[in-house]
Design brief:
9% of the residues lie in helices and 22% in strands. The protein is mainly beta. The chain has a domain at 16-132: Immunoglobulins (Immunoglobulin-like, Sandwich). A four-stranded antiparallel β-sheet has the order 4-3-6-7, covered by helices on one side. β1 and β2 (40-46) form a beta hairpin. The chain is rod-shaped, with a radius of gyration of 32 Å. The termini are far apart. The relative contact order is 0.23.
Length: 171
């Protein structure tokens, strides 16, 4: 499948305490990766606003790679990373946004970073790094429990010359 295939789900905070907690998050969204199927991952974050944590931003730019960030050089990592297309439009600040990234190799580790822009566009800094770990098959096959030697096939008594086997000598 194509990693650019993305879907969106909104989750509204459950009450004033959740809203206050969501608004207390800085303008940089925090990403978290949840493993859904082996070839996909769901990324969740709290939507930032247009101006800090107020309003609604205009666009998201999510990128990923299988290479980790070398030292503190996030910009070089970002420039070499593949973008996830078909990102959802940002939700109102404080709500949870998500995207499912599909078509991933389940044997590899993936690293994701998100940036947000307003209508100008003023771009946010880089989000935290979300990581999808490999999902390897760790269950071995069952042990064989009925291994045994084959017994020889029973001998079948057949005459060497079918003509001799007929009564009367065969003619």
């Amino acid at each position: 499948m194509d990693p650019s295939h993305a879907t969106r789900r909104l989750v509204r905070p459950a009450g004033a305490a959740a809203l206050i907690a969501a608004l207390a998050i800085l303008a940089l969204p925090r990403l978290s990766a949840a493993q859904a199927a082996t070839d996909s991952t769901t990324l969740l974050w709290t939507a930032p606003g247009d101006d800090g944590n107020v309003g609604r931003a205009s666009t998201y730019n999510l990128r990923y790679r299988t290479a980790a960030i070398a030292g503190t050089d996030t910009l070089s990592w970002w420039n070499a990373a593949a973008p996830v297309t078909s990102m959802p439009l940002p939700a109102v600040a404080g709500l949870t946004d998500s995207v499912v990234v599909r078509g991933l190799d389940p044997t590899k580790t993936y690293y994701f970073i998100l940036r947000t822009a307003d209508e100008v566009p003023n771009w946010s800094g880089f989000s935290n790094l979300a990581v999808k770990l490999p999902r390897a098959d760790t269950i071995p096959p069952a042990a064989v429990t009925d291994l045994r030697g084959a017994s020889p096939a029973p001998a079948i008594s057949r005459p060497a010359n079918p003509a001799r086997a007929r009564p009367g000598g065969g003619r």
